[in-house]
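Handout, page 2. Input:
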Amino acid sequence: MDSVSALLRHAALDLARDPLETRPVYHATDDAITAYRALLEAGGEPTRIVVAGESAGAGLAMATLLGARRAALPQPAAGLLFVTMGGSDQSGQPHEPS
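Output:
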């Protein structure tokens, strides 16, 4: 990851939840907003920042974007939310096991 980060000149924050974490889940949003604020204070340009997440991480990414807006922080260039929307046949119907 470090060599990829150096090559692309980017920083990546992995806010995966520790399974032994004892704080309530909503603290993850506070942690993500704190990390975003620290990135901005370190000179990160909002126009070069993307907040992204997959599955439950998409919810955290959205909560981070909304929290940053509520805190009047500059908005990042983009938010990418990856979520599963249905069965693999894209019919929108639930998948029936065989």
